[in-house]
Amino acid sequence: MTAQEIMNSEDFKACERFHGHVCPGLSIGYKAAKAAMDRLAENRAEDEEVVAIVETDACSADAVQVLTGCTFGKGNFFFRDYGKMALTLLSRNTGKGVRVSILPDASARDPRHTELLQKMMRGNATDAEKAEFKKVHLQRTKDVLETPLEKLFNVTRVEMELPSRAHMEPSENCTRCGEPAMPSKMEMAGGEKICRGCAEIG
Fold first, then answer.
1. In this predicted model, what pLDDT tens digit does every residue of 40-89 receive, in sequence order?
2. Same domain, yes or no, for 87 and 179?
């Protein structure tokens, strides 16, 4: 499929709606999630059938949530703050797992794209530079979508213990702020059972 055909597909549009815009990072997450789901021969999780572990909280993580059905709210989406574009997908149905990580050469930006991105982030890009960035950014997105998987990712089988299923328990009121919290996430301080928010305040 061409990049435009992928971008016109319903699943990519769903990622775009969820994320808010099209960008190279979203496209990387889209392709990584697709590759992992295909390798595991899994369907989108309705409950906790699939577990996703992402190593970045950047754009790609949103595509993973949309395509895999793994979310924080369901308890089958985990974030490891490693700063890497890597996704581990595990199947509770088969016990199999796969890790998809971006190859070093695939993550390299062209200098002009980087320069324009920095200006956009600083808020000092001119109108002409904003227009150029939009064009370059879209082209980078298309390049990602049209890059063969073997030139974009390292895909490996993994064996690891599946995380526990989502934990649910009745809330208790924090003795300081009065707000309900999960008891297992509360702490004892001065003989009081308090929430972590109050514990951080001291």
1. 999 999 999 999 999 999 999 999 999 999 999 999 999 999 999 999 99
2. no
One domain, residues 77 and 51: yes
* Enclosing domain of residue 81: 3-108+136-158
End-to-end CA distance of the chain: 56
Asked if residue 128 is part of any domain, the answer here is no
Q: SS in 3 state form for the chain?
A: CCHHHHHHCHHHHHHHHHHCCCCHHHHHHHHHHHHHHHHHCCCCCCCCCEEEEECCCCCHHHHHHHHHCCCCCCCCEEECCCCCCEEEEEECCCCCEEEEEECCHHHCCCHHHHHHHHHHHHCCCCHHHHHHHHHHHHHHHHHHHHCCHHHHEEEEEECCCCCCCCCCCCCEECCCCCCEECHHHCEEECCEEECHHHHHHC
Residue 166 lies in a domain: no
pLDDT in tens, 86-121: 999 999 989 899 999 999 988 767 888 889 989 999
**Whether residues 54 and 101 fall in one domain:** yes
Whether 147 and 177 map to the same domain: the answer is no
Question: Does the residue 164 lie in any domain?
Answer: no
Q: Any residues with CB less than 8 A from the CB of 76 and at least 6 apart, and which?
A: 45, 47, 48, 50, 51, 52, 70, 163, 166
User: Do residues 154 and 192 both lie within one domain?
Assistant: no
